[in-house]
Amino acid sequence: MQIYYKKLKAWHKTLHVMKLTTFIILVFSLQLSAKGLAQTVTLSVKDAPVQKVLTEISRQTGYSMVYKESYFGNNDRVTMDVHNKPVEQVLDLVLGQKNYSFSIRNGMVVIRKKVKQFRNYKQHQIKVVGKVTDEDGNPLSDVDIEVEGTSQGAATNRDGVFFLES
Questions:
Q1: Measuring CA to CA, which residue among 126, 93, 95, 128 is closest to residue 110?
Q2: Strand partners, 128
Q3: Other CB atoms closer than 10 Å to residue 135's CB: what's the count?
Q4: C-alpha of 18 from chain center
Q5: pTM beyond 0.90, yes or no
Q6: What are the pLDDT digits (tens) for 96-145?
Q7: Cα–Cα dist 98/136, whole Å
Q8: Which residues make Cβ contacts (< 8 Å) with residue 5, sequence separation at least 6?
Q9: CA geometry: angle at 95 spanning 91 and 98, to 5°?
Q10: What is the 3-state secondary structure (H, E, C) of the chain?
Q11: Which of 13, 28, 53, 165 is deepest in the core (most CB within 10 A)?
Q12: 114 contacts 101 by C-beta, under 8 angstroms
């Protein structure tokens, strides 16, 4: 009976050590993961070319910069002093006033010219007529049709036909 008790006690101790080890590994993994996602930049430049600033941001973050060289000429210069700021905030400072936008995906920063949005445009009147059928060609009635991204829609009639106007 005493041998069984000693083995049971040793088993509980081993199990406790395993749980503690798993917890420590999990905590360190989460910390490294969070550190990898939160890219920060420290940069102090005066009247530096935009390309040089982007190169330094790339060096500090490991992100690749993708843009047309023609976007930035010799007259495009930046003066800034930032310490441990998120890369998005620094890129906003560098590009925001120069009419450029950026997106970050898969370790790449893609820089594009901002597209001007026109507010006063005339929308063309469009009429769409269609028919919804099953795989055998039989019309389907009461099927809802929606224009993606809008509140416009229609339903098919008993012949499977729908009418949309924008």
A1: 95
A2: 164
A3: 5
A4: 37
A5: no
A6: 777 888 888 888 888 888 776 656 556 667 888 899 999 999 999 888 88
A7: 57
A8: none
A9: 170
A10: CHHHHHHHHHHHHHHHHHHHHHHHHHHHHHHHHHHHHCCEEEEEEEEEEHHHHHHHHHHHHCCEEECCHHHCCCCCEEEEEEEEEEHHHHHHHHHHHHCEEEEEECCEEEEEECCCCCCCCCCCCCEEEEECECCCCCECCCCEEECCCCCCEEECCCCCEEEEEC
A11: 53
A12: yes
Distance CA 75, CA 118 (A): 28
The per-residue pLDDT for 86 is 92
Q: What single letter denotes the amino acid at residue 135?
A: E
In this structure, what token pair is assigned to residue 130? 């269609």
Task: Give the closest residue to 56 by CA, choosing from 47, 65, 46.
Answer: 65
Distances (CA, A) of 70 to 9, 51, 113: 72, 11, 11
Q: The tokens of 31 are what?
A: 């910390």
Tens-digit pLDDT profile for residues 54-85: 999 999 999 988 888 888 887 788 899 999 99
**Please, what is the end-to-end C-alpha distance for the chain in angstroms?**
85
- Which residue carries 């003066």 as its tokens? 79
- State the amino acid at position 159 in one-letter form: D
